Amino acid sequence: MTGAPSGLSRRRFALALPASLLAAGCAAPHRGTGRPGDPIVLTLLSHYASGELKAALQGPVDEWNATHDRVKVRTKAVEFNDLLTTFMVRQAAGQGADILQPYCLWNGQLVRAGVLRPAPPEDAAEITRGYSAAAVGSASVGGQVYGYPTEAQTYALYYNKRLLREAGIAHPPCTWRELEDTAYRTTRRDRYGNTLVQGFGLSTYDDSTTVGQTLALLNAAGGTFVSEDGRRTAIDSPAGRAVLDLEHRLVSRGASEPGVNVYKAFQSGQVAMVISAGWWTGSLKSQMGEAYQEVAVAPVPVPELGDQRATLATGFMLGVNASSQHPREAWEFLRWLNTDRVGVGKGATVTRMSALQVSVGSLTGRADDMRTLLGKGGDPNLRPFLDALGYAVPEPNVPGAQQAKSLLRKNVEALWTGQQSVEESLRTIRRQVDQEVSRSW
């Protein structure tokens, strides 16, 4: 898979979490007696394979193992690009892990393949009650909840205040007309016609900068990528046409150069605006130094003033394998990790998962936890992403969603690079994606 909300190594918020949370439970686990001789051992398979991610997950796992005799948890990890294949291959071989952490885009495929077990009623009720609607939607298939949302990302508009100010623009765009006007006015070229500053950063670098931006704008226009029944694409609509027309104009009029890596160009002051997910905030803050003070974030612009806000939400979750021999114990561990609360100072409490995600520069779908952890003195650029949890639209996760996303990226990039017209792109997307999501799985 190319481009789930990727690059957690790039995500770092300037937070000082209590050391007890980051190093909790480092004592050696007790010898247990869940069965005659040995305790039950659950395996948890994720993509937290190295560095800060691996350490962040291992902390609470060690805490659980140190305080629970009957059930122990052992973590296993593979690199993200191998995660979906690993789920499917191990399941077919009868070697699936008890607890899985999939990218929510894959949930429809995993449910159809009999890999994920529905959440018990009490867990489903807790998830529905405790998380944002977008996070719940990402962790659900066909209205059935399948796991606890972990990482949650929403999309918003990053902009460089200095570049807008130099172009005589006092505030970020609220509508698409303002977005275009701002993009053209902030674009700068040298005397030879070489672009010095892109007004709006459309980029073919990865899924987040191709599909992510396109779907965020599509949601803002009131459109959807896949129909409600999941059997056909819905992008060939007035909303979808408007999005591709907008992107085509930005490229053809020179305000966007898709071949440029927007992650590097924006932090170098060579892009005035770009739509991206909240994880990028921490990366920009750590890499830009003093120049970060010119970065600000606003909601994704809507087509017309007064239109209802919407944007894209992506995420991961923790669920239980349908083939696990110990589902009750697996859900018990997930409840402990995702609902039990720990102190973070001055009487405030959050869940262990919320503390884990913020420690590596991410967010969860528990907005109250996020506000507690980020605090009143936190980075104001995070506020739009937190606010967006209330109106974001989850990424479609029908059985063919992964391939559909790859096909969308291929055709959007063909539009941006002049290989297809808007009409050709819409027609090709409809044909290819319809074939993918409607076929029997």
What does this structure look like?
By secondary structure, the protein is an alpha/beta fold. Strands 1, 2, 3, 4, 7, 8, 9, 10, 11, 12 and 15 form an eleven-stranded mixed sheet that branches. It is built from 18 helices and 15 strands. The chain is globular and about 80 Å long. Helices cover 41% and strands 17% of the residues. Strand 13 (341-343) and strand 14 form a beta hairpin. The longest helix has 17 residues, at 51-67. Helix 9 (207-220) crosses helix 17 and helix 17 packs antiparallel against helix 18 (422-438).
Task: Give descriptors for this structure.
eleven-stranded mixed sheet; 441 residues; 41% helix; 18 helices; 15 strands; two-stranded antiparallel sheet; alpha/beta; disordered N terminus
Topology:
Blueprint lengths: L18 H4 L17 E7 L4 H17 L3 E7 L5 H10 L6 E2 L6 H6 L3 E2 L3 H10 L2 H6 L1 E2 L2 E2 L2 E13 H6 L9 H11 L1 E2 L5 E6 L6 H14 L17 H15 L9 H6 L3 E7 L2 H9 L6 E4 L12 E11 L5 H12 L2 E3 L5 E3 H8 L7 H8 L8 H6 L3 E3 L6 H16 L5 H17 L3
Parallel strand pairs: 1-2, 1-3, 9-10, 12-15
Antiparallel strand pairs: 3-12, 4-12, 5-6, 7-10, 7-11, 7-12, 8-9, 13-14
